[in-house]
């Protein structure tokens, strides 16, 4: 039962730490940066062997095993030294995987530059937020790109992380309840490892999951695995985003519940990603703006269907603020849902 109290509290502390303190801080030895470094090394090794699908599959599985294995072994070593040191490590790692504060900070950087009519720096800041070319974008296109990034990252930077922490803990608890002399801390170690596996898969999709000449075959498995892992969490996150719009509507008419539902129903499957459209369609309807269209990545054009009805307007810089509020409130609802469901499990246990 003690494990359940820890299971509830540690991710909550990590969320608050990231949102209130470390979200906007960039530092060299960030865990995700180190995971990305390892992924980059293995990508060069396996792509050097072959750029085909099989090599990409082996790259993905090998990288997952290496990174998750490092974290699991390191976790058990830390547990042997001190369980409280492991709690601190757990909080540090999870706060690195969550991106509520970091996402808000990056989006506000873009908004503040646009507010100051500094479109040149806004384009530069957009690269770190959305990872796309911004040299030719106007204010509306920069705003659209920022809002799309806010929507998608609400899923993979918040909703999916909490989903896999919970799933990992429950699987670890189930394994521990069977035969074998498992440590009492095993469910927590498995919860962290589960989040690491998800974040690594997400990183590899960001690294190689592109439909370009280099990664069309090599990155296919990484892209499909990321789609599969995000399938349930993104749909739950879309529901939480709609709930956040319902609440925000009470305080402001700038949020549209009816259009959020209409847009989600009609446009959720139009995005090239089977998951991102779930969140972008809710965001488009909530703000009554058009998302999607033409983007540029590495100088290459990417044409996507427009998400939003004909009567929706173009995105503006103030829509970035409204998108941030939806993301923040949806994150809070996810946190409350995590606490309440975990507490229910504690009572049942």
UniProtKB/TrEMBL annotation:
Claim: Transmembrane helix is one of the keywords in the record: yes
Keywords assigned by UniProt?
Cell membrane, Cobalamin biosynthesis, Membrane, Transmembrane, Transmembrane helix
Cellular component annotations (GO), alphabetically ordered: plasma membrane
Q: Name one GO molecular function term.
A: threonine-phosphate decarboxylase activity
GO BP annotations, alphabetical order: cobalamin biosynthetic process
Localization in the cell: Cell membrane
Look up the coiled coil feature and give its residue ranges.
Answer: none
The membrane topology of this protein is: Multi-pass membrane protein
Q: What the protein does?
A: Converts cobyric acid to cobinamide by the addition of aminopropanol on the F carboxylic group.
Q: Which family does it belong to?
A: Belongs to the CobD/CbiB family.
Q: What is this protein called?
A: Cobalamin biosynthesis protein CobD
Source organism (scientific name): Candidatus Acidulodesulfobacterium ferriphilum
Upper lineage is:
Bacteria, Deltaproteobacteria, Candidatus Acidulodesulfobacterales, Candidatus Acidulodesulfobacterium
Q: Which gene encodes it?
A: cobD
């Amino acid at each position: 039962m003690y494990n359940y109290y820890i299971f509830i509290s540690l991710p909550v502390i990590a969320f608050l730490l990231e949102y209130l303190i470390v979200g906007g801080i960039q530092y060299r030895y960030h865990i995700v940066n180190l995971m990305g470094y390892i992924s980059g090394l293995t990508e060069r090794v396996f792509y050097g062997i072959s750029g085909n699908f099989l090599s990409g599959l082996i790259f993905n599985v090998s990288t997952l095993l290496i990174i998750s294995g490092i974290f699991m072994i390191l976790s058990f070593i830390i547990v042997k030294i001190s369980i409280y040191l492991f709690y601190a490590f757990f909080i540090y790692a999870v706060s690195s995987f969550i991106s509520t504060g970091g996402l808000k900070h990056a989006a506000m950087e873009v908004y503040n530059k646009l507010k100051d009519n500094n479109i040149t720096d806004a384009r530069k800041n957009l690269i770190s937020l959305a990872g796309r070319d911004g040299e030719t974008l106007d204010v509306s296109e920069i705003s659209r790109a920022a809002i799309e990034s806010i929507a998608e990252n609400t899923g993979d930077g918040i909703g999916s992380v909490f989903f896999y922490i919970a799933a990992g803990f429950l699987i670890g608890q189930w394994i521990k309840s069977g035969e074998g002399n498992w440590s009492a801390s095993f469910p927590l170690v498995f919860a962290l490892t589960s989040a690491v596996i998800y974040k690594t898969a997400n990183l590899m999709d960001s690294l190689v999951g592109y439909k370009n000449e280099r990664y069309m075959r090599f990155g296919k498995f990484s892209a499909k695995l990321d789609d599969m892992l995000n399938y349930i969490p993104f749909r739950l996150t879309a529901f939480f985003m709609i709930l956040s719009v319902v609440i925000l509507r009470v305080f402001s008419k700038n949020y549209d519940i009816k259009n959020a539902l209409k847009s989600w129903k009609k446009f959720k499957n139009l995005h090239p990603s089977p998951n991102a459209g779930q969140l972008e369609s809710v965001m488009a309807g909530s703000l009554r703006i058009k998302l999607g269209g033409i983007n540029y990545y590495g100088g290459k054009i990417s044409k996507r269907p427009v998400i939003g009805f004909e009567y929706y307007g173009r995105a503006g810089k103030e829509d970035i603020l409204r998108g941030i509020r939806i993301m923040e409130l949806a994150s809070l609802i996810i946190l409350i849902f995590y606490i309440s469901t975990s507490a229910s499990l504690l009572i049942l246990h």
